Protein backbone atom coordinates (compact mmCIF):
# COMPACT_ATOMS: atom_id res chain seq x y z
CA UNK A 1 0.00 0.00 0.00
CA UNK A 2 3.00 2.29 -0.21
CA UNK A 3 3.27 2.95 3.53
CA UNK A 4 5.67 2.24 6.37
CA UNK A 5 5.86 2.86 10.11
CA UNK A 6 7.73 6.05 10.97
CA UNK A 7 9.31 4.73 14.14
CA UNK A 8 9.40 1.34 15.76
CA UNK A 9 8.17 2.84 19.07
CA UNK A 10 5.30 4.72 17.49
CA UNK A 11 2.91 2.20 15.97
CA UNK A 12 0.29 4.88 15.30
CA UNK A 13 2.40 7.09 13.01
CA UNK A 14 2.61 5.94 9.38
CA UNK A 15 4.65 7.39 6.52
CA UNK A 16 2.96 6.99 3.14
CA UNK A 17 5.37 6.81 0.20
CA UNK A 18 2.83 8.15 -2.28
CA UNK A 19 -0.31 10.30 -1.92
CA UNK A 20 -2.94 9.84 0.76
CA UNK A 21 -6.39 9.60 -0.81
CA UNK A 22 -9.41 10.30 1.40
CA UNK A 23 -12.43 8.35 0.16
CA UNK A 24 -12.87 4.97 -1.53
CA UNK A 25 -15.68 5.92 -3.87
CA UNK A 26 -15.41 6.15 -7.68
CA UNK A 27 -13.20 9.27 -7.38
CA UNK A 28 -10.69 7.67 -5.01
CA UNK A 29 -10.56 4.44 -7.00
CA UNK A 30 -10.08 6.25 -10.31
CA UNK A 31 -7.23 8.37 -8.94
CA UNK A 32 -5.51 5.38 -7.34
CA UNK A 33 -5.73 3.43 -10.61
CA UNK A 34 -4.28 6.32 -12.62
CA UNK A 35 -1.45 6.70 -10.10
CA UNK A 36 -0.73 2.96 -10.35
CA UNK A 37 -0.47 3.29 -14.12
CA UNK A 38 2.13 6.03 -13.56
CA UNK A 39 4.08 3.80 -11.14
CA UNK A 40 3.12 5.84 -8.07
CA UNK A 41 1.81 4.03 -4.95
CA UNK A 42 -1.02 5.49 -2.89
CA UNK A 43 -3.04 4.81 0.23
CA UNK A 44 -6.83 5.22 0.40
CA UNK A 45 -8.43 5.98 3.76
CA UNK A 46 -12.14 5.13 3.90
CA UNK A 47 -14.41 5.82 6.87
CA UNK A 48 -16.86 2.99 6.13
CA UNK A 49 -16.21 -0.73 5.80
CA UNK A 50 -16.74 -0.98 2.03
CA UNK A 51 -15.99 0.56 -1.34
CA UNK A 52 -18.38 3.21 -2.68
CA UNK A 53 -20.34 3.50 0.56
CA UNK A 54 -22.73 6.08 -0.94
CA UNK A 55 -23.76 3.57 -3.59
CA UNK A 56 -23.80 0.54 -1.33
CA UNK A 57 -25.41 2.02 1.77
CA UNK A 58 -27.32 5.16 0.78
CA UNK A 59 -29.14 4.40 -2.47
CA UNK A 60 -32.52 2.83 -3.11
CA UNK A 61 -32.88 -0.69 -4.49
CA UNK A 62 -34.25 0.14 -7.95
CA UNK A 63 -31.64 2.79 -8.77
CA UNK A 64 -30.11 2.74 -12.25
CA UNK A 65 -27.58 5.03 -13.84
CA UNK A 66 -29.46 7.83 -15.60
CA UNK A 67 -26.67 8.29 -18.15
CA UNK A 68 -25.48 5.67 -20.65
CA UNK A 69 -22.61 3.59 -19.34
CA UNK A 70 -20.01 5.13 -21.66
CA UNK A 71 -20.41 8.41 -19.75
CA UNK A 72 -19.93 6.70 -16.37
CA UNK A 73 -16.77 4.66 -16.95
CA UNK A 74 -13.67 5.21 -14.85
CA UNK A 75 -10.28 5.64 -16.58
CA UNK A 76 -8.37 2.65 -17.97
CA UNK A 77 -11.13 0.04 -17.56
CA UNK A 78 -14.62 0.15 -19.06
CA UNK A 79 -17.83 -1.62 -18.16
CA UNK A 80 -18.29 -5.28 -19.17
CA UNK A 81 -19.75 -5.55 -22.67
CA UNK A 82 -22.76 -7.51 -21.43
CA UNK A 83 -23.91 -4.70 -19.12
CA UNK A 84 -27.05 -2.88 -20.32
CA UNK A 85 -27.02 0.67 -21.59
CA UNK A 86 -28.14 1.90 -18.16
CA UNK A 87 -26.53 -0.38 -15.54
CA UNK A 88 -28.32 -1.05 -12.27
CA UNK A 89 -27.00 0.00 -8.89
CA UNK A 90 -25.78 -3.53 -8.20
CA UNK A 91 -24.05 -3.78 -11.59
CA UNK A 92 -22.29 -0.48 -10.98
CA UNK A 93 -21.11 -1.64 -7.56
CA UNK A 94 -19.81 -4.91 -9.04
CA UNK A 95 -17.96 -2.84 -11.68
CA UNK A 96 -16.28 -0.76 -8.97
CA UNK A 97 -15.30 -3.88 -7.02
CA UNK A 98 -13.84 -5.45 -10.17
CA UNK A 99 -12.06 -2.16 -10.91
CA UNK A 100 -10.43 -2.18 -7.46
CA UNK A 101 -9.40 -5.80 -7.90
CA UNK A 102 -7.97 -5.20 -11.37
CA UNK A 103 -5.66 -2.44 -10.08
CA UNK A 104 -4.95 -4.17 -6.74
CA UNK A 105 -6.46 -1.28 -4.80
CA UNK A 106 -6.75 -2.11 -1.10
CA UNK A 107 -8.14 0.78 0.94
CA UNK A 108 -7.77 0.97 4.69
CA UNK A 109 -11.38 0.71 5.82
CA UNK A 110 -12.95 2.06 9.02
CA UNK A 111 -10.49 4.97 9.00
CA UNK A 112 -12.55 8.13 9.47
CA UNK A 113 -10.36 11.18 8.88
CA UNK A 114 -10.69 13.51 11.85
CA UNK A 115 -8.26 16.16 10.64
CA UNK A 116 -5.80 16.90 7.86
CA UNK A 117 -3.20 19.66 8.36
CA UNK A 118 -0.31 20.84 6.24
CA UNK A 119 3.00 21.13 8.11
CA UNK A 120 4.53 24.19 6.45
CA UNK A 121 7.91 23.69 8.14
CA UNK A 122 8.41 20.12 6.97
CA UNK A 123 6.33 20.25 3.80
CA UNK A 124 4.16 17.25 4.69
CA UNK A 125 0.45 16.57 5.15
CA UNK A 126 -0.58 15.09 8.50
CA UNK A 127 -3.81 13.12 8.29
CA UNK A 128 -5.28 11.83 11.54
CA UNK A 129 -7.87 9.08 11.95
CA UNK A 130 -9.17 7.53 15.16
CA UNK A 131 -6.35 4.95 14.97
CA UNK A 132 -3.31 6.53 13.33
CA UNK A 133 -1.58 9.58 11.93
CA UNK A 134 -0.63 9.24 8.26
CA UNK A 135 2.02 11.51 6.73
CA UNK A 136 2.70 12.21 3.06
CA UNK A 137 3.89 14.88 0.64
CA UNK A 138 0.50 14.79 -1.11
CA UNK A 139 -3.14 14.77 -0.04
CA UNK A 140 -6.02 13.97 -2.40
CA UNK A 141 -9.57 14.74 -1.27
CA UNK A 142 -11.92 12.26 -2.95
CA UNK A 143 -14.89 12.46 -0.59
CA UNK A 144 -16.93 14.18 -3.29
CA UNK A 145 -19.89 16.52 -3.44
CA UNK A 146 -22.28 14.03 -1.83
CA UNK A 147 -20.47 12.94 1.32
CA UNK A 148 -23.18 13.76 3.87
CA UNK A 149 -26.98 14.03 3.65
CA UNK A 150 -28.51 17.49 4.03
CA UNK A 151 -31.07 17.39 6.85
CA UNK A 152 -33.06 20.63 6.97
CA UNK A 153 -34.01 22.11 10.32
CA UNK A 154 -37.80 22.21 10.01
CA UNK A 155 -39.69 23.52 13.06
CA UNK A 156 -41.87 20.88 14.72
CA UNK A 157 -40.44 17.90 12.89
CA UNK A 158 -39.72 16.16 16.19
CA UNK A 159 -43.44 16.28 17.00
CA UNK A 160 -44.44 14.40 13.84
CA UNK A 161 -46.17 11.10 14.61
CA UNK A 162 -45.24 9.40 11.34
CA UNK A 163 -41.87 8.30 9.98
CA UNK A 164 -39.24 10.78 8.78
CA UNK A 165 -36.48 9.47 6.53
CA UNK A 166 -33.85 11.06 4.29
CA UNK A 167 -33.46 9.53 0.84
CA UNK A 168 -30.04 8.29 1.95
CA UNK A 169 -31.90 5.78 4.16
CA UNK A 170 -34.70 5.06 1.70
CA UNK A 171 -34.48 1.62 0.10
CA UNK A 172 -37.89 0.73 -1.32
CA UNK A 173 -41.48 1.90 -1.53
CA UNK A 174 -42.52 -1.34 0.19
CA UNK A 175 -41.83 0.40 3.51
CA UNK A 176 -44.70 2.81 2.76
CA UNK A 177 -47.14 0.33 1.21
CA UNK A 178 -50.83 1.38 1.57
CA UNK A 179 -49.73 4.54 3.37
CA UNK A 180 -49.72 6.84 0.98
CA UNK A 181 -42.07 6.52 -9.25
CA UNK A 182 -40.98 3.81 -6.64
CA UNK A 183 -43.65 4.61 -4.08
CA UNK A 184 -46.41 4.21 -6.65
CA UNK A 185 -45.31 0.65 -7.36
CA UNK A 186 -46.22 -0.20 -3.77
CA UNK A 187 -49.65 1.49 -3.71
CA UNK A 188 -48.43 4.52 -1.77
CA UNK A 189 -49.86 7.94 -2.57
CA UNK A 190 -46.88 10.31 -2.76
CA UNK A 191 -47.19 14.08 -2.71
CA UNK A 192 -44.21 16.07 -3.98
CA UNK A 193 -43.76 19.43 -2.30
CA UNK A 194 -42.31 21.69 -4.99
CA UNK A 195 -41.02 25.13 -4.05
CA UNK A 196 -38.17 25.80 -6.47
CA UNK A 197 -38.03 25.68 -10.24
CA UNK A 198 -36.59 22.60 -11.94
CA UNK A 199 -35.65 21.48 -15.44
CA UNK A 200 -37.14 18.12 -16.42
CA UNK A 201 -35.68 16.57 -19.57
CA UNK A 202 -36.40 13.20 -21.18
CA UNK A 203 -33.64 10.67 -20.54
CA UNK A 204 -33.52 10.04 -24.29
CA UNK A 205 -34.37 12.05 -27.39
CA UNK A 206 -35.13 10.20 -30.62
CA UNK A 207 -33.50 7.05 -29.23
CA UNK A 208 -30.29 8.78 -28.13
CA UNK A 209 -29.15 9.86 -24.68
CA UNK A 210 -30.14 13.47 -23.99
CA UNK A 211 -26.85 13.96 -22.18
CA UNK A 212 -24.92 12.49 -25.12
CA UNK A 213 -26.73 14.78 -27.56
CA UNK A 214 -25.95 17.80 -25.39
CA UNK A 215 -22.26 16.88 -25.12
CA UNK A 216 -22.01 16.42 -28.90
CA UNK A 217 -23.81 19.68 -29.74
CA UNK A 218 -21.84 21.78 -27.29
CA UNK A 219 -18.65 21.03 -29.24
CA UNK A 220 -20.09 22.82 -32.27
CA UNK A 221 -22.66 25.33 -31.05
CA UNK A 222 -22.87 28.03 -28.36
CA UNK A 223 -24.28 26.92 -25.03
CA UNK A 224 -27.40 29.10 -25.25
CA UNK A 225 -28.34 27.51 -28.56
CA UNK A 226 -27.88 23.98 -27.20
CA UNK A 227 -30.09 24.86 -24.23
CA UNK A 228 -32.73 26.27 -26.53
CA UNK A 229 -32.70 23.07 -28.62
CA UNK A 230 -32.95 20.83 -25.54
CA UNK A 231 -35.92 22.76 -24.18
CA UNK A 232 -37.67 22.77 -27.57
CA UNK A 233 -37.39 19.00 -27.89
CA UNK A 234 -38.23 18.47 -24.20
CA UNK A 235 -41.45 20.47 -24.58
CA UNK A 236 -42.30 18.42 -27.68
CA UNK A 237 -41.75 15.09 -25.91
CA UNK A 238 -42.88 15.89 -22.36
CA UNK A 239 -45.23 18.81 -22.86
CA UNK A 240 -45.31 21.97 -20.78
CA UNK A 241 -44.18 20.91 -17.30
CA UNK A 242 -45.40 24.23 -15.84
CA UNK A 243 -48.96 22.92 -16.28
CA UNK A 244 -48.32 20.03 -13.86
CA UNK A 245 -46.65 22.19 -11.22
CA UNK A 246 -43.01 21.84 -12.29
CA UNK A 247 -41.92 25.35 -13.27
CA UNK A 248 -38.77 25.67 -15.35
CA UNK A 249 -35.98 28.11 -14.41
CA UNK A 250 -35.34 31.05 -16.71
CA UNK A 251 -31.73 29.89 -17.15
CA UNK A 252 -31.23 26.98 -19.57
CA UNK A 253 -30.46 23.47 -18.21
CA UNK A 254 -26.80 23.22 -19.23
CA UNK A 255 -25.96 26.80 -18.27
CA UNK A 256 -27.68 26.31 -14.89
CA UNK A 257 -25.70 23.12 -14.29
CA UNK A 258 -22.42 24.85 -15.10
CA UNK A 259 -23.10 27.90 -12.95
CA UNK A 260 -24.82 26.41 -9.90
CA UNK A 261 -24.27 22.65 -10.14
CA UNK A 262 -28.06 22.12 -10.16
CA UNK A 263 -28.61 19.09 -12.36
CA UNK A 264 -31.62 18.73 -14.67
CA UNK A 265 -33.96 15.90 -13.75
CA UNK A 266 -33.92 13.15 -16.39
CA UNK A 267 -37.43 11.71 -16.55
CA UNK A 268 -37.72 7.92 -16.45
CA UNK A 269 -41.46 7.70 -15.91
CA UNK A 270 -42.36 9.95 -12.99
CA UNK A 271 -43.79 12.70 -15.20
CA UNK A 272 -46.44 10.40 -16.69
CA UNK A 273 -47.47 9.43 -13.15
CA UNK A 274 -47.73 13.11 -12.21
CA UNK A 275 -49.95 13.71 -15.25
CA UNK A 276 -52.14 10.73 -14.35
CA UNK A 277 -52.48 11.86 -10.76
CA UNK A 278 -50.65 8.91 -9.21
CA UNK A 279 -48.03 11.37 -7.95
CA UNK A 280 -49.56 14.60 -6.73
CA UNK A 281 -47.55 17.82 -6.95
CA UNK A 282 -48.18 20.16 -4.07
CA UNK A 283 -47.06 23.65 -4.99
CA UNK A 284 -45.99 26.10 -2.30
CA UNK A 285 -44.40 29.47 -2.79
CA UNK A 286 -42.26 29.83 0.33
CA UNK A 287 -41.68 26.35 1.75
CA UNK A 288 -42.67 24.57 4.94
CA UNK A 289 -43.50 26.72 7.97
CA UNK A 290 -43.72 23.87 10.45
CA UNK A 291 -44.46 20.18 10.88
CA UNK A 292 -47.39 19.19 13.11
CA UNK A 293 -48.25 15.87 14.70
CA UNK A 294 -50.09 14.66 11.60
CA UNK A 295 -49.07 16.97 8.78
CA UNK A 296 -47.44 20.18 7.62
CA UNK A 297 -48.22 23.89 7.56
CA UNK A 298 -46.78 26.03 4.75
CA UNK A 299 -45.72 29.67 4.61
CA UNK A 300 -48.61 30.59 2.32
CA UNK A 301 -51.20 29.28 4.81
CA UNK A 302 -51.85 25.91 3.22
CA UNK A 303 -51.97 22.77 5.38
CA UNK A 304 -51.69 19.10 4.49
CA UNK A 305 -52.20 15.86 6.40
CA UNK A 306 -49.46 13.31 5.75
CA UNK A 307 -48.41 9.87 7.01
CA UNK A 308 -44.67 9.91 6.26
CA UNK A 309 -42.00 12.40 5.26
CA UNK A 310 -39.17 11.59 2.85
CA UNK A 311 -36.50 14.29 2.76
CA UNK A 312 -35.21 14.47 -0.82
CA UNK A 313 -33.00 17.36 0.25
CA UNK A 314 -29.76 16.16 -1.27
CA UNK A 315 -26.19 15.89 -0.03
CA UNK A 316 -23.23 18.10 0.73
CA UNK A 317 -19.44 17.97 0.95
CA UNK A 318 -17.92 17.23 4.35
CA UNK A 319 -14.46 18.65 3.63
CA UNK A 320 -14.80 21.67 6.00
CA UNK A 321 -15.24 19.31 8.97
CA UNK A 322 -11.79 17.71 8.63
CA UNK A 323 -9.51 19.76 6.33
CA UNK A 324 -7.87 22.37 8.54
CA UNK A 325 -6.04 25.62 7.82
CA UNK A 326 -6.80 25.62 4.11
CA UNK A 327 -8.69 28.27 2.12
CA UNK A 328 -8.77 26.25 -1.11
CA UNK A 329 -12.36 25.20 -0.35
CA UNK A 330 -15.32 27.50 0.31
CA UNK A 331 -17.69 27.16 3.28
CA UNK A 332 -19.80 24.66 1.31
CA UNK A 333 -16.80 22.37 0.89
CA UNK A 334 -16.33 23.01 -2.83
CA UNK A 335 -13.11 24.21 -4.52
CA UNK A 336 -13.07 27.99 -4.94
CA UNK A 337 -11.36 27.67 -8.31
CA UNK A 338 -13.96 26.61 -10.90
CA UNK A 339 -13.75 23.69 -13.33
CA UNK A 340 -11.53 22.77 -15.13
CA UNK A 341 -8.78 24.16 -12.87
CA UNK A 342 -10.11 23.30 -9.40
CA UNK A 343 -8.15 20.10 -8.97
CA UNK A 344 -4.85 21.33 -7.52
CA UNK A 345 -3.45 23.66 -4.86
CA UNK A 346 0.21 22.99 -3.98
CA UNK A 347 0.33 19.49 -2.49
CA UNK A 348 -3.47 19.33 -2.18
CA UNK A 349 -5.59 17.76 -4.90
CA UNK A 350 -9.34 17.39 -5.34
CA UNK A 351 -11.25 14.86 -7.42
CA UNK A 352 -15.00 14.46 -7.72
CA UNK A 353 -15.90 18.11 -7.10
CA UNK A 354 -16.47 19.24 -10.69
CA UNK A 355 -20.30 19.09 -10.67
CA UNK A 356 -19.87 17.08 -13.87
CA UNK A 357 -20.41 13.57 -12.59
CA UNK A 358 -18.10 10.70 -13.38
CA UNK A 359 -16.83 12.37 -16.55
CA UNK A 360 -15.40 15.16 -14.40
CA UNK A 361 -14.00 12.59 -11.97
CA UNK A 362 -12.19 10.75 -14.77
CA UNK A 363 -10.74 14.01 -16.12
CA UNK A 364 -9.40 15.09 -12.72
CA UNK A 365 -8.01 11.63 -11.86
CA UNK A 366 -5.88 11.58 -15.01
CA UNK A 367 -4.57 15.14 -14.43
CA UNK A 368 -3.72 14.46 -10.78
CA UNK A 369 -1.84 11.25 -11.53
CA UNK A 370 0.24 12.90 -14.23
CA UNK A 371 1.04 15.88 -12.02
CA UNK A 372 2.16 13.78 -9.07
CA UNK A 373 4.11 11.42 -11.34
CA UNK A 374 6.19 14.38 -12.51
CA UNK A 375 7.17 15.04 -8.89
CA UNK A 376 7.55 11.40 -7.87
CA UNK A 377 10.89 9.83 -7.08
CA UNK A 378 10.98 6.10 -6.26
CA UNK A 379 13.35 6.69 -3.31
CA UNK A 380 11.25 9.44 -1.72
CA UNK A 381 10.29 7.26 1.24
CA UNK A 382 10.87 8.67 4.71
CA UNK A 383 14.50 8.77 5.84
CA UNK A 384 15.70 8.60 9.46
CA UNK A 385 16.22 12.37 9.50
CA UNK A 386 12.55 12.78 8.60
CA UNK A 387 11.62 10.55 11.51
CA UNK A 388 13.42 12.75 14.04
CA UNK A 389 11.89 15.95 12.68
CA UNK A 390 8.38 14.57 12.51
CA UNK A 391 8.53 13.45 16.13
CA UNK A 392 9.30 16.95 17.41
CA UNK A 393 5.67 18.10 17.18
Automatic annotation (TrEMBL):
What this protein is called in its record is indole-3-pyruvate monooxygenase
- Which PANTHER family has this protein been placed in? FLAVIN-BINDING MONOOXYGENASE-LIKE PROTEIN (AFU_ORTHOLOGUE AFUA_4G09220) (PTHR43539), FLAVIN-CONTAINING MONOOXYGENASE (PTHR43539:SF78)
Q: Which cofactor does it need?
A: FAD
Show the catalytic activity. indole-3-pyruvate + NADPH + O2 + H(+) = (indol-3-yl)acetate + CO2 + NADP(+) + H2O
Tell me yes or no: is Oxidoreductase among this UniProt entry's keywords. Answer: yes
Q: Does the keyword Translocase apply?
A: no
Q: What is the lineage of its organism?
A: Eukaryota, Viridiplantae, Streptophyta, Embryophyta, Tracheophyta
Its BP terms in the Gene Ontology are: auxin biosynthetic process
A GO CC annotation given for this chain: endoplasmic reticulum membrane
Which pathway is this protein engaged in?
A: Plant hormone metabolism; auxin biosynthesis
Q: Which domain of life is it from?
A: Eukaryota
Q: What is its EC number?
A: 1.14.13.168
Per UniProt, what is one GO molecular function of this protein?
indole-3-pyruvate monooxygenase activity
